[in-house]
Design goal:
It is a single chain. The protein is an alpha+beta fold. The chain folds into six domains: 111 residues, no CATH class; 83 residues; 220 residues, no CATH class; 231 residues, no CATH class; 88 residues, no CATH class; 108 residues, no CATH class. The protein is built from 44 helices and 31 strands. The strands form ten sheets. Strands 23, 24, 26, 27, 28, 29, 30 and 31 form an eight-stranded antiparallel beta sheet that branches. It comes from Frankliniella fusca. This is Halomucin.
Amino acid sequence: MADSQQAISGDDLWKLLQEDGFFCPADLKLILKATKWDNLNTLSEMNPDSDLSSIQNFMQNTLHHILPDSEREKYYSLFKDHPEKFQFVGGDIQMVKQMIEHAKNISRKHNNKRPFSSGSVKTMGVTPAEGGRNTANEAKKSKSVSSSEILKAKKTLESTINIYVNANFPLLKDKTVECIVACDGYNSFVAKAPCPVDKCTEIRKVTRNDKRWNTSNYYAHIRSHFSKRKSKISDSKCMKINKMLSQQKSKNKCSDSDSENEDDPERGNNTEDNGQNLRPIRKCSRRVNFISDDSDDENHDENHDENHDENHAEDGTFNDTIQNSSTSATTENDNAEQQIFQWKKDHYSRSKRTQRGLEDAALGCAKITDFYSVLNKMDILIRENEELKNNVVKTMSEAMPVQSTQATPKLSAMLEILLECAKKNALKKSGGERYDEVMKELGALMFHVGGLQLYEILCKNLPFPSVSTIRRMIYKQENITEGLFRIKQLKAFLEQRNLPLKVHLSEDATVVAQRVQYHPGSNQIVGFTLPLDANGLPITGSFPATSANTISQYFEDNSASKNAYCVVAQPYVDNAPCFVVVVYGTDNKFKAKDVHRRWLWMCKEFEEEGIDVCGFSSDGDSRLLKCMIFNTICEIPDSKWEWFQAKKVNRFFCVQDSIHVGTKLKSRLLKPSIVLPSGSQFIVSSGHLVELIDKHLLKSQHLLNHSDINPKDKMNYEAMRRMCAKEVTNLLRLKVVGSEATALYLDMMREVVEAFNSVELQPLARIEMIWKWVFYLRIWRDWVLKTEGYNLENNFITSNAYQCIEVNAHAMIQAVITFRDAEDHNLFLPWLMSSQPCESTFRTLRSAQVSFSLLEMQNYIRRIDTLALSKLKLQDKIIFPRHQKAIQKSAATCHIPVCLPEDFEIEMAVESARNQAIEFAVNLKLLKRNQSALYLPLCQVRPLSSADLDIFDDEMNEDEDVNDEHILLDTASDDNNTVPEYENVSVSVDILEDLYVVSSGSIGVKTFNNVNITETSPFVVVADGHGEPAAIRKSTLCWLLQSGDTKISADRLKRVQASDLPAQAKKCKEVSNPSKEEFISVSDWCAFVSEDGSVAIGRVLSFSYMSGSCKKNQQYSRLEAPVAAPENARGLGCLCSWYRLIRSTLKPTDMDIQGYYDIKNYICTVPRPQLVQNSLRLSCSVQTIKKFM
């Protein structure tokens, strides 16, 4: 057996382990193979303590000396650069221990697979009498069968048997047959299979031919337990037959030939000649088989004739029959043909035997005619007694309901609810119907989804509750109060859905229509900016509507809110719904200290309710970013990790939305007048993308349009995703010369987003991915600061984007350590740590109505909560297609559970990231190679103090972000435009009815003079045009005091784009000879006069005005520029990649300062150079170019 296990090695061993449920990593396979541990016998006997230590010594001291450099990474993974420091990490040790246990389990199974001893494998099933056959079959023996083939045969047999048993025997559907399979020595298999019936302990032998298993006998044995045609003989009959047979045995002895042929009715049976009919006489053994429980169907049919003969024996003819059979035995051979013929008669056919059995069974049954007399008496009684007749008819109708000839169709759950409700209220008068909670929830769901008009149609045609009933039900639900934190409601939300009490909070603001309205539920004026208290919290109830003068004073002293600020909680469960904690109006004039104090208050209040706030997220707002830096970045780096300038464990971690970070990097790349030098030879420029688009490449290769590189479209995430795709960066490196820095910048854009948003990445891969670009940005930033003529404002990414990336990188490690120490590995879901829950909430609100006020936004949020709660209550009764689709999508994209790494594993991943970043910097000449060995870039984000949080930033967002002034607003010229909007609102319970047309062409106000006026009533008293007091609605007064109404554009692209549109892209032109053009375009190759009078060749990347009051005024967004400047022009400059022309070869020029060169130094446009043997060749000479000077 040890030899057999020793043969199981290499791929066979890994396959067995995989079938047993264990998956071994590739590097561990190679290590075990190199140390000769990759076989079942040795692996099952491995000592994980001593043996792993010897393997580790071998890896540290020996293996890396004999391995080629190209193979080292496969064996050493993270230790590839320092193999002498190799050691088994915690996960590897646990994995080896699990592998040893699986190997032992497989070894035990392997020992039990052979039902015979190891020495009898070759002679299995061979008896001494069969020695000749064994000798003759020696030539048929083939090579020994491997264990994998035995396992495959075992799996096939068990699958075949279990499928058959489950399909044919419902009582055994929970049974699983496990077989023992071994090789029979003749290149085939033999197995032992137990019977799946509980009371049966028999084990059947199953053989196999060249193609399949022979399971027919095994199936027949199982069928014998469930045969419905078994018949039994009473004990008295059995005793009588045995007595008669014993008497006959003393008179006649059966010959040996009769005994041998007793099972064959066509060979030598004794018969009795009774006229022309011959009746066979059965032997004793056949009668014993007749009463056996295991007799099959054929025996049962034959035994029916024995029963028939037995009936004759009871009439006294049995002894005569035995005597006649004994006398006819002497003539058995002479009458063989006649006896064979008699069994072919129709009398002995199966149908006739079945018929005789039915006739015999019916002898003791009652006949129909026996009931005629009873029926006659009942008929007489029923005709004489009318009451008895009615009772009989009623009883028969109840006991025997009329059955439909057609099958009743199965109704859906929703139709069953409606049918039950219709039956319950069918006999009730109008207005007296009663509805259960399920029907009310269904009605509320239809009211919210379909609106008032659809629900009125449903009420008139289906048994739905009335509109007033649904409105009362909705009105009883808790309102959303402006500025009130719904912490208790959040806890109920989590508990109802069985979600963990750990959330991630995100904050963001969205633009709302500046409309002030009255909310009768709280008696408050909604739409003004709420003041903040000492904790940075909005003060609720700041604008009570007590009187007309008070309301009027609010309008004089306050301004309407331009934005609605939301805090949204996201549970740490993938695809779990989010919850709006608070919403209130703001004027965006709060400070970072307000944010910090609000966060501390929320953490405390949430903790009192048992909810743990693990982190906060935002979209790059400078005040929230300040607060994040204050809570993340420390003055003194970690004593062990100099590159990590934060506390490893914090009360909460802070994350900036990675999608917004990616769009910031995109905007910086596309912004005109900005020069992003990366070393002395390379520039990060969108001109490389323009050249890639304008080249004669199929769009299917790069999937880009000129609209994707529109600098005015700042928040187009899909354009950013297409720009930084791997296909684009690969094409840039392959097709566009000198685009190495741009391709690297696009790689950074992609991976900074993927480090948080990708679901498939492991924690160490995420850490390595984002820290690689953190180190690269630190090196690049340090180079810009040290290079004269460059500054961070004009020649580096924005400080906002850099700080966001630094904060995210530190938060990634903090999240890993936090969840690892709390043993909540499954809660590490980085793609949920963003401000996307806020964005998702805003998208949902805009899908219902694009332009809404603050009050309408609160009502829409309550509608969302009501819909979610209704779906939760009805999910077991109603099918929601989108909900089911979301569940299926969630199951299909379910992420693999991870084991969070230890500190030393994090350190190794960061070290690998540092090495990659240094290699990037060396290739771009940002760093010299001789300086790179010990170079450690440190964090360059300045820690903030409490005093810094109190400083208000006038510029909330940097110039690449979307400002309020860029949002296109449509001002309503006529206040009547708001009337249809109110009429179309279907979700608000308190539908405003303020406007009433009293005469053609004029607007009046409806008065209510007979109402009770209090401070909380929805009416106030004002003076009309004649000075008389009149009661009007408070909502009407708000409308009258409001000077105008602002609506938001329905087009989101217009809301996030700048007002001026970019110029259309112009296809780059191709010239075959030098020529002087009136216009030059981005990606053109042109000759310019340098400062020393020589000819310089430049590839145009972008244009900018040479003068302007600020950088924004210097931006030139067109892709082409005139060579001859018009009068009073500010002058244009070209940003180029510069080359020197030496003997028709272009050599890159090292530039001390990369900047815009005046276009008036233009000489001519030259043909596009060709790449020949890694060199750029120009088809014209310097002398040819100088002719155009």
